[in-house]
Amino acid sequence: MSDPAVDPCFDHQPALLSVEEAVAALLSEARPLADQERIPLMQAGGRVLAEELHSPIDVPGFDNSAMDGFALHSRDMQRALSDGLVIAQRIPAGSTGTELQAGTSARIFTGAPLPAGADTVVMQEFCRVEGERVNFEQAVTPGANIRPRGNDIKCGDTVLKSGTVLQAAHLGLAASVGVGAVSVYRRLKAAIFSTGDELIEPGQALAPGQIYNSNRYQLSALLKAQGCEVIDLGTIADDYETTRQTLLAAAEQADLVVTTGGVSVGEEDYIKTALQTVGELTLWRIRMKPGKPLAFGHIGAVPFIGLPGNPVSTFVTFVLFARPFMQFMQGRTQTTPPSWPVQAGFEYQSKQRREYLRVRLNHDPAGLPVAEPYPRQGSDVLSSVVWADGLVEIPEASRVSPGDTVRFLPFSEWAR
Ligand code: AMP
Ligand code: MG
Fold this sequence. Notes:
Molybdenum Cofactor Biosythetic Enzyme, Chain A; Molybdopterin biosynthesis moea protein, domain 2; binds magnesium ion; binds adenosine monophosphate
């Protein structure tokens, strides 16, 4: 391993940063995209809202029945129980009834407006219809089974905040207040390429010394899952001039350039030198495992993130660093990956670096989650990511014993 103090490849000594310091440094460089567009609500899934949405109406807009049943005034309840009530009208959802006269009831259906003069609905399971009359088998409390006007949302309420990623429930809520089109941030365009003479594409035959390019596929999918438009520039050779030209071409087309590999300090790692000639670079070494080196820089005004080449390192550094950076560029307000505490089901001793173990969650007899690590945690073992439910964070220089509480970062929420 190279030591920055003695390695001539480090012309400025990169600091060893904690994960938090690296995230903070990255986010301080992120600028949200300014461009917005107005699109139909049906096309807005996964996009980031660029405006605050207020409701122009009450929801529900009128008092309505929560049940199929009979509407009456609670004043008539005793009479209803002893003699039954005349069924004076029928109100299906979508229609409006007329004012309910004393001593009568209305056949009413879920979602139908409560007629004036009624204040209670008795569900049909407690009613017996005989000819023109309905008999009630059980008293209900006055006001029962009514959904009052404005129960969900009041006119003028803020229903969605700017920076929200529009998912199913958000779209449903926007529709419920009558919003048919929304302003969203433009999709982020991310240009990607992989570096490495050893890489070939899946589907081709391997020659000696070659490996398949897996990062290209996982990185592209990770970016698309973040709502990015991916400009895929493929794989390039370990060569200074090709690297330089590809960096320039990438920056011309994209809002952000993300690469994998070539950011260590080996002789075949050209990202660093090429980037220094077309822009500026900071090479960070982060106190974490997997994925110590991370390159960050600019080509003109376009930010550049260089992820390490080992596929597990690519995955983990993407999730911890590239993802929050992109989310900030997309105008999102929430960029911290969700996490929660779980019990460790294992023994572990970390060294000077923070470790991110790929773990699966099992359950103890009380049903509480217990993390079990994949047996091989090497940064080249991509099957560990497929096997696992998420990552467990082991702080620097820590001992973890079974039953200890550790922080779990679920893949389902933020990575896959
Ligand atoms: P590098 O960061 O270029 O030194 O690469 C570190 C390790 O990751 C080497 O074993 C590379 O062969 C491997 N690697 C780099 N890029 C990829 C890729 N796109 N797909 C699979 N493995 C890769
Ligand atoms: Mg390489």
